[in-house]
Amino acid sequence: MQDWLWATAADLGRGIGAGDIDPVDLCEVYLAAIEAHPHRDRIYARVTADRARVEAAAASDRARAGRRVSPLDGVPVSWKDLFDTAGVATEAGTALMAGRVPQNDAEVLRAATAAGLVCLGKTHMSEIAFSGLGLNPITATPPCVNDDAAVPGGSSSGAAASVAFGLAAAAIGSDTGGSVRIPSIWNDLVGFKTTHGRLSLTGVVPLCSEFDTVGPLCRSVEDAALVTAALEGSRAPDLAGASLTGLRFAALQSVVLDDVAEASMAGYHAALKRLADAGAVIEEVAAPELERAFAMSLPLYTADAYANWRDLVEAAPDKMFPQILERVSAGRDVPAHDYLALWAELRDLRRSYDARMAGFDAVLCPGAANMPPDADRLMTDDAYYKTQNLLTLRNTRVANLMGGASVALPVGVPSVGLLINVAGGQDDRLLRIAAAAEAALR
């Protein structure tokens, strides 16, 4: 049964469907693993054991009766601590929300429950989700699976750790500038940033309303497709027969190749070679739109975040980690007319970028430009924290700024990943491309 902890969610679902795995037994294996794990309190903010057992028992009854409601019916997953859970605290990794207990589940959690997913609990995260590092001295900093002295990536830090350490079959996080994909990359997982607006944000504690998205952190692209379908009550796209043969990829040259760590660059180039060997055509493409988009992105993010957090932040700023307080407070100084003008300009840049990339099946770039930074140094070196946080989120932010969908794939080098981006609304096509790329990168 211990090997269940390392199986894909899809394989667990197939085992339940075949009668080889009882959801009740599966749930107990995960709950026991969580209870016994030395990093339990650094990964899970709260374990919802009672809820999990009730949901697993219902899934077991459905399986025996031949009435399973989805391919993942009975599979245990974790939830980032910004998804509302009825009767269970949802605190978004901040003392500003300590003791906040919502009355209702987030809409995506309700959909997932209706699809039979079993809620194991709530995972730690960067404070208010406003950092890509995963460092959180206010609540907890989860471990990185490849280096316990390093941060795990954020802001869905505990989400990634829960899967990487075998404490959930999959995890649900959020991605505003890379918060699903960065921790997935640094913990050797698959991360899926959906198109903004595809999955409901009702009952999700906001960071930046114009950029927030919901997405899964998983062991496979198949898992990402199935979990996403469960989150919206839909059917996952068919990934069978996905191939790279004849696909045309743009290898992005602008911004994303600057100051990339040696291991990340080596892993990226090795990944490109494997994709080409599998039949893909790869062309280097510059996108000058990104230079301007990055230059103007800070006020877009900080103004949005400050609008959502102003009242809580101004009431008790001393409760926040200073780095996060400084970042969110910067939005106070962004005039409304500047914010609106920047958004008008960004929409123009998006149209230009989409036209430039229209002849390609997808856009490729290195995942995180840097390797996981040292947690202790981040706590004591303010300049290091700022430069590493911005570098961490740089490449992933391309998809957020350009309004696209994105998948992060491991490339076989610890804490190194590949980003595959497409235009917004092309999520299912992206998943087929990512499935083919995943096969080539194994």
From TrEMBL:
Q: Which PROSITE patterns match?
A: AMIDASES
Keyword list, A-Z? Ligase, Transferase
Answer yes or no on keyword rRNA-binding.
no
Query: Gene3D superfamilies attached here?
Result: Amidase signature (AS) domain
Query: Which stretches make up the Amidase domain?
Result: 26-430
**EC number(s) for this protein?**
6.3.5.-
Instruction: Specify the superkingdom.
Output: Bacteria
Q: One MF term from GO for this chain?
A: ligase activity
Among InterPro entries, the record links this protein to:
Amidase (IPR000120), Amidase_CS (IPR020556), Amidase_dom (IPR023631), AS_sf (IPR036928)
Name under which the protein is recorded: Glutamyl-tRNA(Gln) amidotransferase subunit A
Query: Which organism is this entry from?
Result: Pseudooctadecabacter jejudonensis
- Taxonomic lineage of this organism? Bacteria, Pseudomonadati, Pseudomonadota, Alphaproteobacteria, Rhodobacterales
